[in-house]
Amino acid sequence: MSALTTEPAAGGPTPATQPVQTSTSPLVRPNARAIATRFAFVAALIVLDLWSKSAVFAWMEGLESAGRLVPDDCGHGHLRMPIIDGWFTFMLSLNPGAAFGRLDSYPNLLIGGRIAAGLLLLWLLIRTPATRPWLVVAFVLVLAGALGNLYDNLLRARDLELDRYYRERTFGPVRDFVDVYFGVWKYHFPTFNVADSCITVGAVVLLITSFAREKPAAVDSVAEPVSGA
Description:
Layout (H helix, E strand, L loop, with lengths): L15 E2 L4 E3 L7 H34 L4 E2 L7 E6 L3 E8 L11 H21 L5 H22 L19 E9 L4 E6 L1 H18 L6 E3 L4 E2 L3
Helix pairs in contact: 1-3, 2-3, 3-4
């Protein structure tokens, strides 16, 4: 038995096909539970940063009073507590500026910029779609780091021994304690803290995600013949 084929009648309507339509799935905005989870991670990182600063500074000040800290051999007389083989140490440091002590002479610009950046990150963290998890991770890390350091600038009581150099300033300095020392060059990498680490890792993740190609979820409808009436 042969297969029957349907041919359009002369002068009659020809079969039409529906145009191929590509529908891209809409952005999935986070619900209240997802937003609460994001801010819970931010809060946890801030607590870790503030706790580490307070704990290490209290411990190190006790060691300094007992004369148990050792000076490095780079000629600057930094008193340190070796943690791993002399290259990874703890050292008390207060930083009134940004990374590497920059913007120390422009405190209003520095703190104003940190506050503006924090507000922007808050908005981005609320608005970022659930389909961009790595972007969420980046914003969580950078926001937590920014707020952790901002706490030192605005809210921390200046009751440390090193604070005597900064009590007349409008804003307080940030507590740093992680010291990486390269003995070959007798060079100290600028001291940093947990908040700085969060900002750095978050910035790297953000940079990587900005180069990554997003794969939009698209559904292509198959063209089907529609018989003319």
